[in-house]
From TrEMBL:
Family affiliation: Belongs to the diphosphomevalonate decarboxylase family.
Key words of the record: ATP-binding, Lipid biosynthesis, Lipid metabolism, Lyase, Nucleotide-binding
Cellular component aspect of the GO annotation: cytosol
EC main group: lyase
Domain Diphosphomevalonate decarboxylase-like N-terminal: 7-162
Protein name: diphosphomevalonate decarboxylase
The Mvd1 C-terminal domain, residue ranges: 180-306
EC number(s) from the headed UniProt entry: 4.1.1.33
GO terms, biological process: isopentenyl diphosphate biosynthetic process, mevalonate pathway
Gene3D superfamilies: 3.30.230.10, GHMP kinase, C-terminal domain
GO MF annotation list: ATP binding; diphosphomevalonate decarboxylase activity
Superkingdom of source: Bacteria
Length: 325
């Protein structure tokens, strides 16, 4: 009753922003992401006879009550599916630098979904794993698959049609994704809270819903044609639109800092000088830059020269989940 799995994190190009069901984690809109190499979580799960509760160890340390509860709530779903009654010991190693602004919850819940379901004796398809991972964190449903992935929002109330699908494998199209860390304070609003507040109070949210499925279509077509300019352009527009919806929330949610704007301006200048580079920003101050491999070094060096840039990490499209034991 033991298993170990590895999952990479992902970055959304068309964002998931807003839930239609908070408990089942069903999204208002479909989203598209790239699974990244290099930033991952490895998790082992063992269901044991002698445990009186679940144990969650992250990077060799026992975690706080709030974290333990999230994991136990997730394991309850696996226990219900498998009819296993035992508690589990969960051991996770996170190679996602939290300061890099990547959500470790995406790789974390994707790895946990695989390891816990296998340890409980379930043999789930990729689609079923994606739906299970979604129950931990929405973006995790995309990390089950490698490369370019779409999360189909689905229509059903119970969420059985809301899961990831692979659009293009990581081997089919290599581009560069640079994670740009800028000097910033600790973020005050989680993505969960930010999206909830936006859905409930922002007058701009209806504009998001009216246009996001069109953005999805443009991105899908760009991925199919491997049209970098079109994909980068729609990703940048979509990220700005997501942030615009938050500015209209009550109270407003603003994740950008001085460094965020410096990087955004720099990328727009690069583009004017003929280098195809685009940015996207999640619920935080850091910026992710998309560029072609042939321009990777040049874009990397130019970003490091900006006064508010602290570090730049280079990634490429990576693989989906794998079992290690
Ligand atoms: O899955 P969560 O709850 O970490 O939310 C992710 C929200 C964004 O990162 C802003 C967008 C996305 O699609 O990943």
């Amino acid at each position: 009753m033991k298993a170990k799995a590895k999952a990479n994190t992902n970055i959304a190009l068309i964002k998931y922003w807003g839930k239609r069901d908070n408990e089942l984690i069903l999204p208002m809109n479909s989203s598209i992401s790239i699974t990244l190499d290099g930033f991952y979580t490895i998790t082992s799960v063992e269901f044991k006879e002698d445990l009186k509760n679940d144990i969650f160890i992250l990077n060799n340390k026992e975690t706080e009550d709030k974290e333990q509860k999230k994991i136990s709530k997730f394991l309850d779903i696996v226990r219900e599916l498998s009819k296993v009654k035992l508690y589990a010991e969960v051991n996770s190693e996170n190679k996602v630098p939290t300061a890099a602004g990547f959500a470790s919850s995406a790789s974390g819940f994707a790895a946990l979904a695989c390891a816990s379901s296998k340890a409980a004796g379930l043999s789930l398809s990729e689609r079923e794993l994606s739906m299970l991972a979604r129950r931990g964190s929405g973006s995790a449903c995309r990390s089950i698959f490698g490369g370019y992935v779409k999360w189909e929002k689905g229509e059903k109330l119970e969420g059985t049609d809301s899961h990831g699908v692979r659009l293009l494998s990581e081997k089919d199209w290599d581009i560069s994704i640079l994670s740009v860390m800028v000097a910033s304070g600790k973020k005050k609003v989680s993505s969960r809270e930010g999206m909830k507040r936006t859905v409930e109070t922002s007058p701009f949210y209806s504009g998001w819903l009216d246009t996001v499925e069109k953005d999805i279509k443009i991105a899908e077509e760009a991925i199919r044609l491997k049209d970098f300019y079109s994909l980068g352009n729609i990703a940048e527009e979509n990220a700005l639109k997501m942030h615009a919806t938050m500015l209209g929330a009550k109270p407003p949610v603003l994740y950008w800092e001085h460094g965020t704007l410096e990087v955004m301006g720099h990328i727009q200048n690069l583009r004017e000088s003929g280098i195809p580079a685009f940015f996207t920003i999640d619920a935080g101050a850091n910026v992710k830059v998309l560029c072609l491999k042939e321009n990777e070094n040049m874009v990397y060096e130019s970003l490091l020269k900006l006064s508010s840039v602290m570090k730049v990490l280079v990634c490429h499209p990576g693989s989906g989940v794998s079992y290690l034991e």
